[in-house]
Model the fold of this input.
Amino acid sequence: MISPLVALCLVGGILLEAHLSSGARRAAQYTLCTFDSISYDKCLAVVKAAREANRTSPLHCVSRENRTECLETVKDEDNHYVVLDQHDYMAAREAGLRPIIFARVERKNFIIAVAPRNISLIEYNEASLNVDTDDERAFHSALAFNALRGRNVCPDTPSISQRRSIRILNSDQYKPFADSEDILLCPFATYAETNSFAFCNYDAGLQNAVFVYKQRGFPRRKVRELRRSLLDLLNNFNGKRFFNFFDTFKGVNDVIFKNNTIGFDVKPSYVNGIDENIFGELHCNQADHKDNPGQLGDDLETNN
Ligand SMILES: *[C@@H]1O[C@H](CO)[C@@H](O)[C@H](O)[C@H]1NC(C)=O
Ligand SMILES: *[C@@H]1O[C@H](CO)[C@@H](O)[C@H](O)[C@H]1NC(C)=O
Ligand SMILES: *[C@@H]1O[C@H](CO)[C@@H](O)[C@H](O)[C@H]1NC(C)=O
Ligand SMILES: *[C@@H]1O[C@H](CO)[C@@H](O)[C@H](O)[C@H]1NC(C)=O
Done:
């Protein structure tokens, strides 16, 4: 899971930290603000596991009633941070917070757009979409797909009539229909064979990220320190030795960070060029916009 390079950085980080703490400046203590009980419990579980192992905990935890309260806490208190997912970015930005560290995940499956091999360009432009709108990831991809086809994904009224069908689904669930050969449609008007999903997909999400209040002073040194403690979390609390922070917790996946997190970067990595602005457009530039099947207009196939 952990590359030698990451391991090396971590060892370097620990040595540096030891050096700093023996010298003038001690590494500050950073506190994670959680706003649901499962996240708080998971955070406390790391603290407990660290104590039992006689280690310094990479996490310190504080719990608040709801997200708004956490955003305020991060603004008001030094060295506090909050981990947010894609749907929280806009509210956090509006509160003046900034993302500084981005959780990198290992992608094992992809959302793909499958079309009959002999689909024409005109048919592509007019095709309806077969997508499970309850699958949030697939739905985001369908929005991205339609946005790239030039559709208004925040329409007042739907339009357009019936035509060929494009399936938007998880590559793990893809099975070819018996009667037609398929291809994958890629963003930016290319196509690929159906086994090329790692290179030709419509994934359209943002990373979980650490948000802080920069106006209060969050210089690069602090970002490095905080990142080091998160790498400590990733290296030591991933199931190999102590409590597994990157696993389902009380039956819930992806609490705080995604299960399949493999790194922490100081630069975001956008999939398919979907950055915060485009993601915002796909969500009608509203914080906490609720995904709505109506956004696909009558491009959306109804399964009955
Ligand atoms: C932690 O320290 C205590 C006493 O200081 C010791 O009894 C215990 O075995 C240590 N635990 C581990 C996992 O090293
Ligand atoms: C968040 O919690 C506070 C304190 O309990 C409450 O006053 C506020 O209305 C809540 N905000 C939201 C958006 O639920
Ligand atoms: C596309 O191919 C299928 C068979 O795979 C055929 O039934 C259909 O008529 C073809 N459509 C066009 C527009 O060529
Ligand atoms: C993480 O969640 C996935 C489902 O999303 C699950 O299959 C897996 O076992 C969980 N744990 C780890 C360590 O990946």
Observations:
- The first strand starts at residue 31 and ends at 34.
- Residues 111-202 form one domain.
